[in-house]
Amino acid sequence: MPLVALTGGIASGKSTIAGRLAAHGAVIVDADAIVRDVQQPGSPVLAAIAAEFGDRMLRPDGTLDRAALGGHVFGDPARIAALNAIVHPAVRAESARRFAEAFAADPAAVVVYDVPLLVEARADDPWDLIVVAHAPAEQRERRLVELRGLTASDAAARMASQVGDEARLAIADVVIDTSGDLDSTLRQVDRLWEELPAEVRRTEPAEVSVPRPTLE
């Protein structure tokens, strides 16, 4: 019953990796989806956000105005910390509930937590394996412009708002190199799935866990 953390910078191909693992049978728990769920109207999290940042963060229908909230906290460490203090505990509790639910349904399940902010929030949790999707920052920035339609300045700002690649790579047990074509990425994910039991054994607490090379 391995519990795998999957992380990566923006436009790193993390969702592609998660999708391939799901196709192999992994249970994917999506941190972004949990964030949206715990911020639904009537939730304690949404009430706390409105109390902390003002009712202007809510749309007329009572839902969270994510664009307004993002614009309000972006680039302000104190505001970001205040928001994280509200959201992260709820996400942690709900993710733990979903992990337990998946393992209760199938004790042999491979549960993958798809989480962008692993380094920032949950690097020290007891993961059996940490997988990092990685491509050079310049390439990811081009993807944001060419594939997602961001301006160059917006792409650079989004990149700058995240933790650096070095911090993610420093905690990686496995690195999936997504700088090549799609087939290259998928081959590495397929190999990870095949070698997952051995990878988990190599990262057991009795051993020293160090970043390993990519699977390609």
From TrEMBL:
Its main location: cytoplasm. Pathway: Cofactor biosynthesis; coenzyme A biosynthesis; CoA from (R)-pantothenate: step 5/5. It is found in: Cytoplasm. Transmembrane segments: none annotated. Keywords: ATP-binding, Coenzyme A biosynthesis, Cytoplasm, Kinase, Nucleotide-binding, Transferase. GO terms for molecular function: dephospho-CoA kinase activity. Gene3D superfamilies: P-loop containing nucleotide triphosphate hydrolases. InterPro entries: Depp_CoAkinase, P-loop_NTPase. It is an enzyme of class 2 (transferase). ATP binds at A11, S12, G13, K14, S15, T16. It catalyses: 3'-dephospho-CoA + ATP = ADP + CoA + H(+). Its EC number is 2.7.1.24. Catalyzes the phosphorylation of the 3'-hydroxyl group of dephosphocoenzyme A to form coenzyme A. Belongs to the CoaE family. This is Dephospho-CoA kinase. It comes from Microbacterium fluvii. The gene is coaE.
